[in-house]
Amino acid sequence: METILFELALTFYFAATIVCVLELFKGTRTTSRIMFSLVAAGFVLHTLNIVARYFISGHMPTANMHEASSFFSWCIVLLFFFLEYRYKVGLLGSFIMPVVFIMMLTSSMLPRRIEQLSPVLQSSWLMIHTVLAFVGDAAFAMAFGAGVMYLMQEHYVKSKHLGGLFRRLPSLQILDEINYKLITIGFPFLTLAIITGAIWAENALGRFWRWDPKEVWSLITWFIYALVLHVRLTLGWRGKRAAILSILGFCVVLFTFFGVNLLLKGYHSF
Amino acid sequence: MKIVVVGLNHKTADVELREKLAFNGPRLEEGLLRIKEIPEIREAAILSTCNRVEIYLQVRDVQKAYAAVKAFLAHFFEIRIESLDSSLYLHEGMTAVKHIFRVASSLDSMVVGEPQILGQLKDAFDFALERKATGVLLNRLLKKSISVAKRVRTETRIAENAVSISFAAVELARKIFTDLSGKSFLLLGAGEMAELAAKHMMTNGVKDIMVANRTYERGCELAREFEGRPVRFEEFPDALVHTDIVICSTGASTFVLRREHMQKAMRERKQKPVFIIDISVPRNVDPAINDLENVYLYDVDDLRGVVDTNITERQKEATKAETIVEEEIETFRKWLSSLDSVPTLIALREKAEAIRRDELERFFNRFPAMGEKERKAVEGLASSIMNKLIHAPTVALKDEAEDRDMLTEVIKRLYNLNGEDDGKE
């Protein structure tokens, strides 16, 4: 049952992604309305899937890679809706839905078994730690999307070739503002995720910090975003530089999320 | 029943002639009433703008009406009738409809896509309607023209791109800053173009305005005009720190705003973006400034380039708009043919027949014992009431009277003969 929900959600996200990409070439009010309905439908099914897994397993469904990337995508879509509501940014979907779809596709190819958590890990820290981590990561993903859009728009304005997406992309100021806001949201979440992770590790495993690769890379991510915020406030690294940094930052986030599991071994099962 | 457009526009007549033929102020009312008095003409509306003078008519005989209007124009504006020969155009029937649709959609304008024309057309028809110069046909035509224009506006991007340099500057500023209301603005020098651009910025919400001019007094004067504050010319590099938009037009022969100025200012304003528009020729702003981060410099040629691409863009959109116009002409043609009175006559008779049949059936069901003779009598009675009731409207519809179109429309509405077509459009 929950698998069907997942497949359906994936299908809707896929359709939405196609519409999003088409929208880059020829956007009308109708295409964006269709895109929204598709994403919304996918999101509802996706939510049901996550709730179902929660009740079947009895814990937050973020216990393996399949669940984690699914939940990661869910957080991105949630934030996407929020941003659309708040800023009504055209084309944001075209830059973020492909990320969601690829993440969901990856998730769909990973083993979907429902994990039996070892008793040491069974605590409400699981939910607190992972939700914080993924909301933070989702904010970084959106900042990445806004960063890419900024670089495109900046290129149009700077080079004085006002063709392509110039008209439909939002203004530089809005894109920069969104980028900055998202990082100021993502950063405290990441910080809290690291802290709660440490507390959980202390409770369950007896040590706050074990230099597990996931821990190390999370710390690197933390330093990168701390740097992004710091140079912005002190040196005025805004706009283009902030956009580039947030794109780099998200690459590190992705490596921490996928790469560490594939290349390095640690006790984080995802 | 023919729709006709008689007129001239920027393509057929030079400004001198257009000026002479302008229906200004009281002349409009007088002219409209005089045209309406021409016996050939049933409905009339006059559109008079600086680029066109057009008279929309519903007439009985096209050639007679055209000759009469032409003579009227020559007489009314005291010009020789021959001077109208080459510039006056005449469109009739569906060509006229197409022309009005194209005018309303701004496809016939000097600057294709400019939005004012629709409002002017609306005003022209409102004016005529208030003076009872228009009727069913022209009113319907105007309504349709507005809806065509709106469709063109929403389905194409014909009006989206700025086609003047100062509008292009505002458009760019919006793509850098979104909302201009919180932005500060420095006017460097006092050229005419710069003033125009400054005015556009102001109407788009820029409030905090500084003026730096070589002669301080002139700067003060301008500052008063824009409700801004004057800055001494030597001090403008300091003002840059608090300026988001700069318009430069000093008439100097060298670079006034140099790279070092901007570099220093950018450091101090923590890299907040700056949009610089250099309208001066020769240029007053070092083009190397555009290489600085978060500084966007456009000179006159750049802006002209933007405008040129926008114009090509509009022309592309215009072809899409023409297709829409063609589609809409088709729906209007259908409506026109429905105006013809014959179908209405048939519909009226059918409706009456249906009522008669229904009522007789109900009556006979209630009195089944009725004899054949009585039945015949009742049927005869019903028929004669029906025939007498529809006789007068039938005669009126068949008559080639002046107001037949209106009557047809009225009868259709009174007897609800449109059926499911009601409420459409």
Task: Produce a short descriptive summary.
The complex is a heterodimer of chains A (270) and B (425). Chain A has 270 residues and is an all-alpha fold. Chain A contains eight helices and no strands.
Descriptive report:
Chain A has eight helices and no strands. Chain A has 270 residues and is mainly alpha-helical. Chain A folds into two domains: 1-117; 122-270, no CATH class. The longest helix of chain A is centred in the middle third of the chain and has 36 residues, at 124-159. Chain A starts with a helix and ends in a 7-residue tail after the last helix. The mean pLDDT of chain A is 88. Chain B is α/β, with parallel strands linked by helices and 425 residues long. Chain B has helices at 15-20, 26-37, 62-76, 94-104, 116-130, 136-155, 165-177, 192-203, 216-225, 236-239, 259-268, 300-339, 341-366, 372-398, 404-414, and strands at residues 2-9, 41-48, 52-59, 89-92, 184-188, 208-213, 229-232, 245-248, 274-278, 295-299. In chain B, helix 4 packs antiparallel against helix 12 (300-339), helix 7 packs across helix 8 (192-203) and helix 7 packs across helix 12. Chain B starts with a strand and ends in an 11-residue tail after the last helix. Classes of the chains: A mainly alpha (270), B alpha/beta (425). At the A-B interface, helix 5, helix 6 and helix 8 of A face helix 7 and helix 12 of B.
Highlighted features:
heterodimer; A: 270 residues; mainly alpha; 2 domains; 8 helices; 79% helix; globular; B: 425 residues; alpha/beta; Beta Polymerase, domain 2; six-stranded parallel beta sheet; elongated; disordered C terminus
Biggest pleated-sheet summary of chain B: 6 strands, parallel
Provide the β-strand percentage band of chain A: under 5%
Describe the main β-sheet of chain A briefly.
none
Of all protein chain pairs, which has the greatest interface, and how many residues does each chain bring to it? A-B, 21 and 24 residues
Number of domains of chain B: 3
